[in-house]
Specification:
By secondary structure, the chain is an alpha+beta fold. It is built from ten helices and 15 strands. The strands form six sheets. Strands 2-3-1-4 form a four-stranded antiparallel β-sheet.
Length: 308
C-alpha cells in the first residue's frame, strides 16, 4: 500500500519514471542485433601448411606429425584434429572455454617456430583464429555471365571478392569455380639428359632465380641508395632465358630443354549453374557481427556488381 500511496503523492516522479522506462526500452529494441541464434565464440585455432605436389602420406610424415609434436604442449588445448591431403596439411586446435584466443594464437606461433626441419618446398604455416560461426558461410552468391568461366574467376578475384571483403562484419570470402592462372614449364627429359642436367637442378634453379634479392644500402654523401637485384619472373621470356649451366662450354637455357607457356591449374572443383560452369562466393561473417546488417551490405555490393 505504501507504493500506491507514494505514487499518488508523487505523480510527476511516477510519470518521469514511466517515460524513462519506455524510452530505454525503445533504445534497447533498436540497438539489439537481430540474429536467429546467439553468437558463441569457440576458442579454435587452425594451422594450414601447403606443400604442392606432395602426397598425403608425405604431408603427414614430413609436416603434420612434426607440427603436432610441438603443438601438443600448447597450454589449454582440449583436442587436436589433423587432416593430411594432397599438398596440404590442416591442424585444428580446440581450446578449453575461457582461453584467450589471442594469447593462444601467439603460443601456437611460438611452438611452430621451434619446428626447424620442415621441407624447403613447403610454404610457411598459416595460423588463423576460427570459431564455430566463422566456419560456414551465411550467404552464397552465384554469378551468371556470358564470359568464359576462367575470365569470370579473374574478375571475381580482382574486383568482386575484394569488394565483399571490405564490408564491415565480413570475416573472409570463399571463391569456387574456374581455374587459377599458372606458368607451366614442360620439360623434355631427353634434351635434359643429353646435356647432363638433372631435373632437380632445373627445379632448384627456377626457384632460386624467381625472387628479388636485397643487397643492402649504398651511401654517397648525404644520400643513401637502397640496392636490390630484381629477378622475379614477369613474362615467359624471362623463364626461357634462365641459365641452367654449361654443356661443353656452351650455355644451356631453359628454352633449350623445356617449353614455357601460360595456362591454368588442373581443375579440382567444378561449379555449374543449370549445366553452365560458373563462379560462386561464400560470405563468412566475423564473430559478433550483426547478420542482418552484413547481409544488407552484401546485397548492396551485388547490386553494384550487376550495375557495372
Amino acid at each position: 500500500m505504501k507504493l500506491v500511496e507514494t505514487s499518488i503523492r508523487l505523480p510527476v516522479t511516477v510519470m518521469v519514471g514511466a517515460i524513462l522506462a519506455v524510452l530505454f526500452g525503445v533504445i534497447s529494441l533498436i540497438g539489439i542485433p537481430m540474429q536467429m541464434a546467439p553468437t558463441v565464440d569457440r576458442p579454435v585455432i587452425e594451422v594450414k601448411t601447403t606443400w604442392r605436389g606432395a602426397s598425403p602420406r608425405e604431408v603427414e610424415e614430413e609436416i603434420t606429425d612434426k607440427l603436432e609434436e610441438k603443438l601438443n604442449s600448447v597450454e589449454g588445448v582440449n583436442q587436436i584434429t589433423s587432416k593430411s591431403s594432397d599438398g596440404e596439411s590442416a591442424i585444428t586446435l580446440e581450446f578449453d572455454w575461457g582461453v584467450n584466443k589471442d594469447v593462444a594464437r601467439l603460443e601456437v606461433s611460438e611452438k611452430i617456430a621451434l619446428v626447424g626441419d620442415l621441407p624447403e618446398e613447403a610454404d610457411e604455416p598459416v595460423i588463423s583464429a576460427a570459431s564455430s560461426d566463422e566456419q560456414q558461410p551465411f550467404s552464397w552468391i552465384v554469378t551468371k555471365s556470358d564470359m568464359p568461366v576462367n575470365r569470370l574467376r579473374i574478375l571475381g578475384d580482382d574486383v568482386i571478392k575484394p569488394r565483399f571483403e571490405r564490408i564491415e562484419g565480413v570475416g573472409s570470402v570463399w571463391m569456387f569455380g574456374g581455374e587459377d592462372r599458372e606458368l607451366r614449364v614442360t620439360v623434355d627429359l631427353d634434351r635434359l639428359a643429353a646435356r647432363g642436367i638433372p631435373i632437380t637442378a632445373l627445379r632448384d634453379t627456377l626457384r632460386r632465380e624467381n625472387r628479388n634479392v636485397k643487397a643492402g644500402g649504398l651511401e654517397e654523401g648525404k644520400r643513401r641508395y637502397v640496392v636490390r637485384t630484381v629477378g622475379q619472373y614477369a613474362t615467359t621470356e624471362d623463364v626461357e632465358s634462365t641459365l641452367l649451366g654449361y654443356d661443353d662450354g656452351a650455355p644451356v637455357y631453359v628454352r633449350d630443354v623445356a617449353s614455357v607457356a601460360l595456362g591454368y591449374k588442373d581443375r579440382t572443383i567444378s561449379v555449374n549453374q543449370q549445366g553452365i560452369p560458373t563462379v560462386v562466393f561464400g560470405i563468412l561473417r566475423k564473430t559478433g557481427a550483426n547478420t542482418v546488417e552484413v547481409m544488407k551490405e552484401v546485397r548492396g555490393v551485388v547490386d553494384w556488381v550487376n550495375g557495372q
